[in-house]
Specification:
- It is a single chain.
- The chain has one domain (4-26, 33-173, 181-187).
- It is 32% helix and 40% strand.
- The protein has 5 helices and 6 strands.
- Strands 1, 2, 3, 4, 5 and 6 form a 6-stranded mixed beta sheet that branches.
- The protein is globular, with a radius of gyration of 17 Å.
Length: 189
């Protein structure tokens, strides 16, 4: 007879495999994306976000840098994980590449894709990112998180945090998006 832990792990893997096959918009190669592919996706996602959340454009103009993760895949059934690759945009071009990884446990089930952008509003916040090679969100500079709807209420007079996170392009079957326990690491490319 299977133990509860083994049964849960088996069901989790099965659910992830089934949902990834049925929900994934297109098959992706197992290899990591090249820097040119990441840069293209980052620039496209940033333009799309600026069009869909016009207030984010003003925030982008004031930011010292914007770290964009165009497509994060989050999947889970009790145990969850998310992963994505992105780039740091400074002075209109991608200057460095990063990945984001997170794991979670709790009442969750489903698959979701979404993107998010981190707007670094101060030189100190950008310096922290560069000097640490990455960081765990919640342990570094102060961060304020907005979804597309909440971002509409953000203005240059209400922006006082070191970093702002804006979620965009959410699709899938898992409700909510969060950055708790998310580790961002610089890629050597």
């Amino acid at each position: 007879m299977l133990s509860v832990r083994t049964a849960t792990a088996t069901l989790t893997l099965l659910a992830l495999a089934v949902t990834m096959v049925t929900v994934s918009p297109a098959p992706r190669p197992a290899a990591a994306a090249s820097t040119s592919e990441i840069a293209r996706d980052v620039n496209s996602a940033l333009a799309k976000m600026y069009d869909s959340v016009p207030e984010s454009r003003n925030l982008g103009r004031q930011a010292r840098a914007v770290l964009v993760f165009p497509s994060i895949v989050k999947a889970g059934f009790l145990f969850g994980a998310q992963y994505g690759e992105g780039g740091l945009v400074q002075r209109g071009r991608v200057s460095a590449y990063y990945n984001t990884v997170s794991a979670s446990y709790g009442l969750q089930a489903g698959v979701q894709t979404f993107g998010y952008a981190l707007f670094f509003m101060s030189d100190g916040a950008v310096q922290y990112l560069n000097n640490s090679g990455g960081f765990e969100l919640g342990t570094g500079p102060s961060i304020a998180i907005f979804d597309a709807g909440m971002a509409r209420s953000l203005s240059t007079t209400t922006a006082h945090s070191d970093i702002y996170a804006i979620f965009f392009d959410q699709r899938g079957l898992m409700a909510g998006a969060g950055l708790q326990g998310t580790k961002i690491t610089r890629l050597d490319r």
